[in-house]
Amino acid sequence: MSAPNAKKFEIPVWLQPDGAPLSCREKIKILNENLEEIREMAQDALEDGILMGCDEAQLREVLLALVDSLENPYGDRKGAKKD
Fold first, then answer.
1. Which of 20, 24, 59, 65 is positioned for an S-S bond with 49, CB 3.0–4.6 A?
2. CA atoms of 80 and 76, how far apart (whole Å)
3. At what angle do helices 25-51 and 56-68 cross, to 10 degrees?
4. What is the pLDDT along the chain (83 residues), one digit of tens a residue?
5. CA distances (Å), 58 to each of 13, 54, 70, in order?
6. Considering the entire predicted model, what is its pTM?
7. Cα(1)–Cα(48) distance, integer angstroms
8. Nearest to 46 by CA among 62, 26, 25, 27
């Protein structure tokens, strides 16, 4: 199911906090797999909600709010190991 005005989602170039791209292929692979899983789950939730009669705009707002509510449990990662 694809809406006529649906935007094509593109996997980003993953960046480190200093703006340099990640270079570890395994890290990039895991990030891409996680992102695709999240996208599939969000798509399923959107479709289910629409089929159950929910307003599409509200569903999209809720999904955005969900992402905005995510917390970084690690705080400042300046001392984190670079790849």
1. 59
2. 9
3. 150
4. 555 566 888 999 999 999 999 999 999 999 999 999 999 999 999 999 999 999 999 999 999 999 999 999 998 766 555 55
5. 30, 8, 19
6. 0.76
7. 11
8. 62
